[in-house]
């Protein structure tokens, strides 16, 4: 399925933009100028895909190793990601020996990272520093997306390559009505040029009635993200931001610090595995599309 242009969402955008203003933008300006100069100096062509995977999880212990129709979920994700044409290299980054052993068993390259990583972005940053080769773009491929389309991986890479003013790119798809109030389904709004305005666990935009509008094209954020490597080196040193902590969404630290994030709209029916109950949904879908 091929990525298409993002659907603009301008209702209430002035409110979101107001939230993003502040001192954090000024503090990040110097670092942004340095990154911008380096990005425009050459085309960002060298790309590495990294699948962060941790065993410990408050909602789903050992999630990367849970069987999905007979194969560990991390293997399902790896096999799909290997089909992407824009990746020069693909690795799994983990802090757990059990995950590493399984991944090495099915032929994946593995990089061991520390347990102190707060999120997938920080784990990707540690992994990229341990790679011998240098890369211009790092793609963070969520290990709990066993049905991720390789075309989506290629789409976020090409979006970042085509947007020299952005340090980050990601993907969204149409939000299903039944997921409108689910805090595990992260929502997104974008501007008319396809750049992210805000992400939230709540329904955005929110109208005066406080209820979901069945005719509005709400957007669901997919976990896949790509970063400019120079920005990724700076990201862990940026202090946590108010919105990031409140929503528990790492993308908001990028926006609050004044960086631009390109968003592509794609058709994607499946979602990631957040809780144990999602496993049966994924397996049912795989059977329906004859994907074993």
From TrEMBL:
NCBIfam families: kdsB, PRK05450.1-3, PRK05450.1-5, PRK13368.1. Pathway: Nucleotide-sugar biosynthesis; CMP-3-deoxy-D-manno-octulosonate biosynthesis; CMP-3-deoxy-D-manno-octulosonate from 3-deoxy-D-manno-octulosonate and CTP: step 1/1. It comes from Quercus lobata (Valley oak). The keyword Transmembrane helix applies. PANTHER family: 3-DEOXY-MANNO-OCTULOSONATE CYTIDYLYLTRANSFERASE, 3-DEOXY-MANNO-OCTULOSONATE CYTIDYLYLTRANSFERASE, MITOCHONDRIAL-LIKE. Belongs to the KdsB family. Keywords: Membrane, Nucleotidyltransferase, Transferase, Transmembrane, Transmembrane helix. The chain crosses the membrane at residues 12-35. One of its GO terms (cellular component) is cytosol. It comes from the Eukaryota. Signal peptide: none annotated. This is 3-deoxy-manno-octulosonate cytidylyltransferase. Pfam families: CTP_transf_3.
């Amino acid at each position: 399925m091929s990525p298409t242009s993002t659907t603009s969402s301008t209702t209430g955008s002035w409110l979101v933009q107001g939230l993003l203003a502040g001192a954090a933008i000024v503090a990040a300006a110097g670092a942004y100028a340095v990154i911008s100069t380096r990005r425009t100096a050459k085309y960002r062509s060298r790309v590495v895909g990294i699948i962060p995977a941790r065993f410990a999880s408050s909602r789903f212990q050992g999630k990367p190793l849970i069987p999905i129709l007979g194969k560990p979920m991390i293997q399902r994700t790896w096999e799909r990601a290997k089909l992407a044409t824009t990746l020069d290299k693909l690795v799994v980054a983990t802090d757990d020996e059990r995950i590493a052993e399984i991944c090495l068993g099915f032929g994946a390259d593995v990089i061991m990272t520390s347990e102190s990583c707060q999120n997938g972005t920080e784990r990707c940053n540690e992994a990229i520093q341990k790679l011998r080769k240098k890369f211009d773009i790092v793609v963070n491929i969520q290990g709990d997306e066993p049905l991720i389309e390789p075309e989506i991986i290629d789409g976020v890479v090409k979006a970042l390559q085509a947007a020299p003013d952005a340090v980050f790119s990601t993907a969204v798809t149409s939000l299903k009505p039944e997921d409108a109030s689910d805090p595990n389904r992260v929502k997104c709004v974008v501007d008319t040029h396809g750049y992210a305005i805000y992400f939230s666990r709540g329904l955005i935009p929110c109208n005066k009635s406080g209820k979901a509008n069945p005719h509005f094209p709400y957007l669901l954020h997919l976990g896949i993200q790509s970063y400019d490597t120079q920005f990724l080196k700076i990201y862990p040193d940026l202090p946590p931001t108010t919105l990031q902590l409140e929503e528990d969404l790492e993308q908001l630290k990028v926006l609050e610090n004044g960086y631009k994030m390109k968003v592509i709209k794609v058709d994607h029916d499946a979602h990631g595995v957040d809780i144990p109950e999602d496993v049966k949904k994924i397996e049912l879908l795989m059977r329906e599309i004859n994907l074993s």
